[in-house]
């Protein structure tokens, strides 16, 4: 009797430990970088399980049913539930999860747009996935002197109702003077053209100044104001579009476990998810702690300040 054939064990891909010189050059040129296997399959699975647990276990009893608008006006963000979420874990609904009479049309675990904004401190699993050797090495390679994690989110992009996110720059919403924000965007599920993957205007971080910022308005609420300070990072080499030239967007389809680095000036967007498959991701943002971050920004630091990605002696 012939021995049965046993398939060799499938080895998990090795998690990279730092950026290569080629990757860093690509990021500086294009304004974004895709790094496959930045989190192991085991870690991704654990984070996805924790996300699903949070979605199924949060209470609707005292929830104000705050929606997260992905439209150009961002009209959702005037309420206290949103504005005081900087040191909490809170749940924000998809706009299209409600009927015209205000009733949920989806189960609550399929109605949430995002969970934020303090997962990097309050969730042990997401904290561990934030403060990794790779992420610290990336910040060092980018030249950060005092990198601070100021917000973290799970963005769900729910099946059938996941909202479109129009072209935007992260530094508009997380403004420092001069601009310094970098997004660390990690796919917990495959992100494809069907379920609303990211699209990038390659190189637009060198062409698009940060001209507006999202602020708390006097008398309450939020809105956009013109930027009075620097519109590009310090000592940044910029370029201009040719006359009448428009930005072109390229798809960023990625597999689960991929890290996407996004420059704060880079124009990027995502389309609606009309498919039957969700597109869960985890993202956190880092700013330069030595740059000016003022009290007008919508997100204000907790009492102990924004969290250091690493100590300066590291």
Describe the protein's architecture and organization:
The protein is of the alpha+beta class. It has 7 helices and 15 strands. It is 18% helix and 23% strand. β9 and β10 form a beta hairpin. The longest helix has 17 residues, at 41-57. The radius of gyration is 20 Å and the shape is globular.
Q: Could you tell me the radius of gyration in angstroms?
A: 20 Å
CA(first)-CA(last) distance: 60 Å
Order of helices and strands: HEHEHEEHHHEEHEEEEEEEEE
Helix coverage percent:
10-25%
The total of beta strands comes to: 15
**What class would the helix/strand composition place it in?**
alpha+beta
The number of distinct helices, counting runs of at least 4 residues, comes to: 7
Which of globular, elongated, flat, extended, rod-shaped describes the shape?
globular
What is the percentage of strand-forming residues?
Answer: 15-25%
Sheet of most strands: 9 strands, mixed
Which parts are unreliable, with pLDDT below 50 for 5 consecutive residues or more?
1-10
Overall pLDDT metric: 91
Pfam families: PhyH
Cofactor: Fe cation
Protein name: Phytanoyl-CoA dioxygenase
GO molecular function: metal ion binding
